[in-house]
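Annex B, item 7. Sequence and structure tokens for protein A, then protein B.
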Amino acid sequence: MESKSLSIQSSNNLLLSEGISKYHSARQVIVEYTSINSIENKRDIQNRTIDLLEDFLAYSYSTPEIEFINSILEDNARIVKTSDYSSLRLKSILEKADPQGIKLLKIEDDIDLAKLKVLYKRAAKEHHPDKGGNLKTMQAVNRTYDLFIELISQSSYFDSGADSAGSFVVSPKNIEDFIFSAHYNLAVIYADAFATDRLFLHLKEIQRLLGENSSPYVGHSIRVHVERSNEIYKICKSLARFEMRDELKEATQITLKLIERCVQDWVVLNESDSKPKLKHILDLDLLKSKFGGSITLRHLNQAENAFRLGKISRERYEKARKKFLGENDLKIVCANKVNSFISEYGFASIISNSNYSTETNTSSDSLTIAPYSSDRFELLQENQKAEYLSAFSKPNEGHLFEKYYDIRVNEILIGLIKNFSGIPIEKIIFEVNYFKDNFNRQFKKYEIIHEFIVHLNNLPDELREEKLNILSSLDSTKRKENGYIFAFLMEPQSQEKEMRIEVTNQYINFALQDLHKIREYKDGASSETEFDIAWRRDITLLRKFKETSVSKERELVWFSIGRSPEDVVRTSENYLKEILKLGEQFHPKNTGELQIGYEINRITTALVKLNKWESALHWSKLFFELPLSYRDRSTNSELKAIQKRMNRCLKKTKG
């Protein structure tokens, strides 16, 4: 990346510089992409990530721009290194790092990357010199924005459950570090997208940078990608799949150097952490077995690149394109069903006792997703409130319903408990049944509400009124903390006597108890519900099972490189037999914690690869024959995949 001379005469012009804007966009998209755990969700922003990173790398930066970016990254790295992610809430971390910045961006209790971007834009409009603002204040806003992006990204690693990544906090200290990160992330993305020609170009650039940059950030970047499904192995695997012999030979040499650097910079985090052996990361013998292997297409980018590089026929490409675009059509079908409901029946507008008036209309700034803690209408920002009301009153593309679905169902439950006599119950029941019956469990929380409504209708008026009054009095109106219910269940004696109203199995099981049990809880005679006791027992059983040889062998196979379908079937079959026995000891409402769908999806995929259609059909059918509670933790994509595989097995076995 060469430097070019720009006519930047002052910091004011630097704030308007194209290069600084490109850096901001690239930094944010890397943070967003790497903080996502699901490969499906990563693919949703794959093209945008590629565009912004390639744009950043193609730009020629001036000396003032480079110095400005370096000063930002150096300051950020120093602050990030001294921040405590283990005990402080995110806002407290930001406040400790830059108390003035909290005020400048007007950050309240909740913050994430999307909301930070909105707040930054608002602050920029207010303080930009071209808008009548102050230059020094605008510079402070920019520095705060960059610092908070870094801090939120590190926090997201910690919250994701990746203990090693979360504890091993290393940030880029200069633009060279960040350029390495951009190339590395693009190589990983292109490997997944089957764009092997572009992957190889970035891999060559990584090789050059590896020799020039001695920063420990380089080893950390490699480690993150090794620990996340061993993405470094997938780089070479994609070249082997496309029979790029010369490129694969060179890529394996580069990759081995990357792994050596990763091991060299490795920081031991705890007693169970140790430096890996090279063969465990990149098995060259295994790569040979993948040479020229079958090409499985899992998303549109893979199909387009495989066709562009001449690895699949036009017929297969057109078939894949139709399939993947058809999945987008399903989203349109869903949106049409929601809009039909709005047009023909309409959502009940007044549900709970919330104040449904707003002081603003929707705007482009309102498109941020409400944070986890803003799970009620009254906790939304004003522009989000306006958008929420619009989502349930006017036809839209369907994304607004999905965006505010969790808040909608929570509002219904709050209304049932706090406003039972005033809520339009018939209209609510119609809505619940419509979304419960017409979307193939896509909106599963309506089923929970349905169960609660049936329970309320079966109660005598006096008992129902008393129960609802107690539930209302126990409600907490504070913003929701991560893991609130689970913290309560694990340490009930340390919690206040409250039970926050929210649409979860845990809360509904509490609310469905006999009235005397709820009275006892409120009066302090009992610190636990019957379900709390069952939950604690079942989670203990599950933890013990995870320590058994059957469970450990299954994990060892799954996380090994190049696992064979035969090994997956063998270990998963043993695991499933034992986990189903364990489920017989569980409280029926807790069986979802066994996550049977995850394992069924895995074993049926392996069985189909082996053409063992009868066995795959057996496990698929068993999954859907189990009680509904076993599927509580299954994602919609998981359910669809197993259903689709079962239909395929039925055709094969009949044939």
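Protein B:
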Amino acid sequence: MCTPYEPEGPVLSTFAVASIDEKQDQQVQPQAGGDEQLGRLVAHGFRWSLVSNLSARVGTLFMGIVLARLLAPEEYGVYTVAFVALIILTNTNDLGIETALIRYPGDVDEIGPTAVTVIAASSVLQFLIAFAAAPYFARALGSSDATGVIRLLTVCILINGAFAVQSGLLTREFQQRRRALADLTGLGISIVATIALAAAGLGPWSLAWGRVIGNSVNGVLHFYLARARYRPGYDRVIARSLLSIGVPLAATFLFAEAVNNVDYVIVGRVLGSTALGLYLMAFNLSSWPVSTLSFSVTRVSVPGFARLQHNREALQAAFGRALALVLGLSALVCGVMAVLALSLIRFVYGPPWAGAALALRFLVVLGVARVGLQLGYDLLYALARGRATLVIQMLWLAALIPALTYGASHDGIRGVGIAQMIVVLVIPVPGLLLALRRAGFSLRGVFGQTPLPLLGAACAVLAAIVASAAVHGDLLSLLCGGIAALGAWALVAARPIYRLARADHATNADDEEIDESDAHAPLAAEQSPI
């Protein structure tokens, strides 16, 4: 599921790069007991996760600006066709075993060899199928030129399979500092390779080669930095147990990726490669909070929530604080981005990309909703309620296909953006709320701390509208609108956000390291997330 260098969206965008995994120098998985110790681990891990993702955003900002002037929207569209195939396969080729390994309540060394064997076999099989099916998939998406690029990117499936267990170990044991080192190293090499190859005239191939090179470097570093490296082995009982947990999760991830990528398929088929390139830029910009905040939180939220599952009061409080924090920040970023969409795209990427603003103004609503949905899914995964997320994803996908097709046919990428906004508010958001109620959570308790952060974001949006309308020119609109938005937000929401952040880190006042001898102690039976 989680590759060593797996993207939230295609690397070609400023904000859409490999979802950066995180690591730290000391192994810090806790022994059983102690909410205070767990709080230190989660806070420490989240900080390094966030630093890693923010650093990646800076790197890809540079890459996105350069590539937007080297490649045309149509070339981005060709790469996106190949990327859709890659992202679906790399989220299912481990059959959900990596996530099962993260949640395993016993000694992970007992299941490591079997996990290596099963994931490797699945990855090789899916690689062969994807390689053979590449021309048919490319034609189905209306871009036969993407066949070779798809086949090159399928190599990433093998890379994922080779290092998935080490990636799972690093996530399980909160090794965010080391993981950040590995991921940022791989990202840096990928950026250099991609830009160099694009400048040499390789077009969409430059993006594919950059992905393969970055994944390879990242995977090797994961393998070297992980605590354990297992020889292949096989135990039928262990394999059956892992698959019984992992396959339902893999199915959920498959539907999630179908939801995330069905729009690319429909836009490519209905509107063509150029429109797909523009839509890709808009979607990736709107996904910035997801790729920065949600992935940072996810790396620590699943194991963190799992360890609190038998204390529902503490779990609800932790989830409510995290939800208010990520929703408040993502609403701020996405709201201001929607107001300044046209000026932002023209100034940063150039006039040829201005059409992306048509969809961006509506896709930001999807971006904010996905942040909250992802955190809710993490909570359900930790409580072993993954089937509820699967149902939500299935209903979401069923509603998206006709809505996106109608929107693309009648109003281009703008219609697709509107369809995305309507469907996410009507299907998955209410579905998640129902799932949380059925899990025993009070919606008042969950959302009790969100009003002020969201009010601050609304004030920032109004300030940006007024300030940007008072000036002329893209640069002045960005400067005045951005400054006014930050000022309004600081007056209303800065203090509540600070308090939420401090509450999450209250148990980490002393940043002491956990004894390495306890780093890979198994979870206690009463804390088992399974």
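Comment on protein B: The longest helix spans residues 386-426.
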